[in-house]
Amino acid sequence: MPKLPFITLLRTSFFFRGLELSAKSMFFHSNFLNGSVVGLAVHLGIFIRGEWHMQAPKLLFSHLILSLVTFGFNIRLSGFSPIACSNAYTVLGGYVCGLFSSILLYRLSPFHRLSKFPGPRLARVSKLWHVWQCRDSRNHLVIERLHEEYPGDFVRIGPSELAVYHPDGLDIALGLGTKCTKSDFFDMMLPNFSLVFTRDQATHHARRHVWTKALSMKSIKLYQNRINRQIEVLRTQIRESALACEEVVINDVLYWFTFDAMGEFAFGEDFGMMREKKWHFAIGMFRRALSLLGMFSSAMWIIRIGFELFPWAPRARDWLSMEAFCHKQMDKRASTKSSEIDVASFFLEEAEKLGESHSAARDKWLKGDATTVIVAGSDTTAPSFVFIFYCLAKYPLDAEKIYEEVKNVDTLEIATVTTLPHLNGVINEAMRLYPVLPTGISRLTPPEGVMFGNTFVPGNTKLLLPACVISKLESAFVRGTEFIPERWYSKPEMIKKKHAFAPFGLGRMTCAGNGLAMTQLRLVTATLVKEFKISFAPGEDGVPFLRDMRDQLTAQPGQLKLLFQERT
Ligand code: HEM
């Protein structure tokens, strides 16, 4: 065999090495490209349409499985080797790049249906931006700041979500005749059913009548003895503090009262918090679990992943344990006969109608509504109370005006307190300036879209309707940021858009417990103002109370210390 010169050998070896490298590079590129095309197709063909939060846990799980299968497949093809692993990485890397580039470009592009609405660039890309902004549970400040930064009626706060600051926003999105429906947020409690968390309108309508019956003014009168009992415990506790000249942490006392009262109305048994002057463990769990909502309520897919894949994580566990506690309360109530009527009596009566053949659905409704009645009934009324008492301490002249109204009347008479103008003006004004659902109302536009004045909002857009901004708009209320109770009775000209104040929502899905909540607010405020002078405790100025407020779907104000002094 002729001997090849060394140089020729070298050249030939470089040539083949080059060929191998370019083949490898082509292979690499084609793997990457194939992955990217699949990623692109999956976005444009599937994920671009509809809602995916309910499937989020399954999607995450199936993507993990698919990644493992891709590795397995490549290892089977080329044996366990760096090449097999790098092939798998390349395909998966291509998929991820294709999928996310397509999502990113689309969301930032002028072709997106919400492209004309202003808002932070990162908010357009992903809801993770909003989640990050809410990491300290202060969504109300985020939403207020955005309103200042982007003056106008709308700000884009997510890829397909708008914050609406229009003075008619609540009326258009919630009012009678609206075609907007509840947003993805209301899938939070699934698989349990509950009136609040029911998106399907027909199902909602069918369930609503039980709640309407259980919380009608006629039924509330049946709970009057229970209400009076709880108010008496509260009065006694406040009187003890007044006699001892002790400051009262009003948040604790009024939260204990409201949860105790709700336990009593709902299941015929309070939580004993006022008597024992300490938090019940289940309510404590619930309040810890709320921090989940402070950060994640704007991204339901994260909450769904948390509940389904990480139910053992501390906050998710607190939430699930709190639900289990409420379910147990309902089971306990179902197995006892009560001589006095309570809210559960109505639910149990309805459950009996469903009978054994529908036992699964019946149990789900009972469980879901048991949680709702405690959570929606207490964690809303309690902060309303705290804000009202903050206003009474801050505006003592208004407290005195209420005193003039109540000093000669029976403050436990529902019909009487309903008609007292300044009492009701103060309650309304406190709820307007300090809404208990500061950013908690959201809706989805119908497929054909909705007009807000002259602006068209396209279909399937999630809307956030922040009461913390809308109810103070100058276009809705004259001197909108000031506390003026008279606007609700003697100065109606100071209200330009009455539906910009909707503390209980509007329309078909308005608060079912509106009457009960207002009754409690009126009776308790009138009773305590009649008996006590209320002021800030020494060293208290109410600043930390507002500064430390968290927005965890419901407002969780900071600590407030008050002094109660018995009127002589
Ligand atoms: C001051 C106290 C309260 C406030 C500010 C309040 C506020 C609200 C708001 C704004 C909504 C509508 C949410 C939406 O449209 O997305 C609502 C719904 C609801 N609330 Fe209340 N609420 C209070 C007290 C109560 C009480 C005491 C109960 C019951 C015991 C209750 C039970 C419900 C229920 C069941 C719904 C759902 C209604 C439906 O979807 O048909 N709420 N509440």
From TrEMBL:
Gene3D superfamilies given in the database record: Cytochrome P450
GO molecular function: heme binding; iron ion binding; monooxygenase activity; oxidoreductase activity, acting on paired donors, with incorporation or reduction of molecular oxygen
SUPFAM superfamilies recorded: Cytochrome P450
GO cellular component assignments: membrane
Principal localisation: membrane
Cofactor(s) needed by this chain: heme
Keywords for this protein: Heme, Iron, Membrane, Metal-binding, Monooxygenase, Oxidoreductase, Transmembrane, Transmembrane helix
Binding site for heme: 511
Location of the protein in the cell: Membrane
Membrane-spanning intervals of the chain: 26-47, 59-77, 89-108, 285-307
Family of the protein in this entry: Belongs to the cytochrome P450 family.
Protein name: Cytochrome P450
Organism: Hymenoscyphus albidus
